[in-house]
Amino acid sequence: MYDIRYKEEQEAKYRILLNQVRPHAYDIVLDDGCGTGLLLQRFTSHSVGLDLSSKLLSAARLKLGERTNTYLVNADSDQLPFRSSTFTKVFAVTLIQNLPEPEQTLGEIKRVSQPDSIIVVSGLKKSYSFDNFEDILENSGLFIEKLILDEELKDWLAYATV
Ligand SMILES: C[S@@+](CC[C@H](N)C(=O)[O-])C[C@H]1O[C@@H](n2cnc3c(N)ncnc32)[C@H](O)[C@@H]1O
Predict the structure, then answer these.
(1) CA of residue 146 to ligand 1 center, whole Å
(2) CB 42: neighbour CB atoms within 10 A?
(3) Could you tell me the distance, in angstroms and rounded to a whole number, from the CA of residue 91 to the centre of ligand 1?
(4) Is 17 helix (H, G, I), strand (E, B) or coil?
(5) Atom 11, ligand 1: which residue's CA is nearest?
(6) What is the pTM of this model?
(7) How do residues 45-60 score in pLDDT, each as one tens digit?
(8) What angle do CA 95, 101, 105 make, to 5 degrees?
(9) What separation, in Å, do the N-terminal and C-terminal C-alpha atoms of the chain show?
(10) For the segment 66-77, what is each residue's pLDDT rounded down to a tens digit?
(11) Ligand 1 atom nearest 56 alpha carbon
(12) Structural fold of domain 2-161
């Protein structure tokens, strides 16, 4: 159901964000709140997809098939079960508006990211004003490198570093 309802909307976001940040073979990628794996399935590098919903992860597992370099983890984004400085690229697409303290969620992402990593975050426009979205990123301690204001997208998009 998620894919039928949201695939097109999410793919419009991926087109823009992957134009700016595309994982390379040497990356270790986290797709935080990966849902059914719509974005995760596009990565060829070592990747982890994490989501709170085991049902959505089952759909992601079907998409990924026999892939051996991609792991799915059923956990809470506010308590990531990873060591600090693990990932080189982190994606959190349309995730943060679901969390009670998005600054804390982004703080966890910052913790598990390597010092030179790139973090891609999006948040629903209907949940946040642009200023609100920017404040959340800044208050989380991330450094905003670029903000994307695309009228066609339902999300604000940001590229950040730790
Ligand atoms: C709007 S969907 C976006 C899914 C995916 N990023 C995409 O691009 O299609 C939000 C996702 O966040 C997940 N989620 C919500 N709260 C979460 C939490 N506390 N920890 C991990 N995932 C969570 C939901 O299960 C859902 O898969």
Answers:
(1) 23
(2) 14
(3) 11
(4) helix
(5) 33
(6) 0.97
(7) 999 999 999 999 999 9
(8) 55
(9) 35
(10) 899 999 999 999
(11) 27
(12) Rossmann fold (3.40.50)
